[in-house]
Amino acid sequence: MKKLSLSLLALITIFASCNNDENSNNEEPEVVVNENPATFKEIGSITIGGEAAAEISAYDEKTKRLFTVNNSGTNQIDVIDISDPTKPTKIGKIDLTPYEGASNSVSIFDGKLAVALESTVNKQGNGKVVVFNTTDYSLIKQVTVGALPDMVTFSPDGKFIMTANEGEPSTDYLQDPNGTISIIDVTNNYTVTTLDFSSFSGQAETLKKDGFRISKIAKSFAQDIEPEYVTISDDSKMAWVTLQENNGVAKVDLTSKTITAIYPLGFKDYNTADNAIDVSDKDDKVAFNPWKVKGMFMPDAISHFSANNVPYFVTANEGDTREYTAYTDFKRMKDMTLDATVFPDAATLKLETNLGRLNLVADMGDTDGDGDLDELVSFGARSFSIWNGNTGKIVYDSKNDADKKSNELGTYDDKRSDDKGSEPEAVVVAKMGNQNILFVGLERSDAFMTYDVTNPASPQYLQTVKTGDAPEGVLFIPASKSPTKRSLLVVSSEGDGTIKIYQPDLK
Questions:
Q1: How far apart are CA 221 and CA 58, in angstroms?
Q2: Which of 12, 33, 268, 450 is at a distance of 20 to 30 A from 169, taking alpha carbons?
């Protein structure tokens, strides 16, 4: 079928009935456009600064503008007009200096822009959420949340704003605030409820047995928890929050404003053909092989969708180390002592062209307490995973697809093989027609991948597309809200401060 002009397409666009499909992620009738989700192509690009200039973007349907975090020697939100997405144009900025905070994340609902600010007075002090009008950038409200709010999002109904407050310690570890979640009730004059994880401290040992991680330097369970990213269910009643450094996901009931569960994510076994990875940055080649190593999933971003009335959440299994003056939690494998019985070939394994360069979790793997490693545990799973939202049990893992597919594209960075490979950073699930489509941003491979996850147990790979340097934020704009009435994908890359806009072909 030949591509139709936008004017003709607008005439034949079909609006979905109010009785939406049970899998729908949208709270309103959606424009249905006959697009091919395997054919996203770049249609527009803009560079707004250098490193850290384009971390996260949010889109305002009312003004057809992007609001993008810019921390490249500035402290502002850049405003970009995408009424013509082939020619994105910077038209303004919001100066954040008066609010004594640096922005980490942005979210928009119905003309309101929420910005998460970590304190620039004391990073370990409480942060803020500042809300602006997207039309004239005027201040609507500012409220106090927990320490170091790393991600902010509106609920689908706009009644709540949630933040994941990472609560990182000071470099000397003398200050280590609790990691928390803040729930802001927009309809009740922005009243804030901030929750910590102290009530789960009694479950610490049980959680650890299932792969949850609490640092050995931690002063308390609640202080060691580091919330990273939030996704909220379509009915705005439930949320899931990644606890990246802890290798877990928390479930939150928004109705009662309580944390109801922590799901330990366990470990990935790299000693299989399907999970084979490249572990050396010194072998002058990309070689995927099975190794006797485990990986903690340690997800960064999280998204969600439903299938057959079952909720699922999707994680980008980036991995993350802790590197402070007082404490560093990783070591090269070659610098560790291995159990001679478990690893009789330790000398060979420690060669830099084998496992020697791989970064391992320094305080895990000594299962019998005798001072040597019985297991090798690394950071991240180099994949995305789909989990049952009710039970936290894994449904699907993408194995080594991220590294292999980006290597086929020519963007895989072999110099990151010893660390976390492609480092899946961002995940977004969107509805396109009757399909649930997943987009996965790969921070170190400068690409995004697309999958059809309509069947959560058997996702279908669609394509890999090059992005700017170090994609941090992936934003889907549905056809109903797009300036072109076509689906758009906006990728913000913090490595080169570039925002790229992609659009699929029509079927």
A1: 33
A2: 268
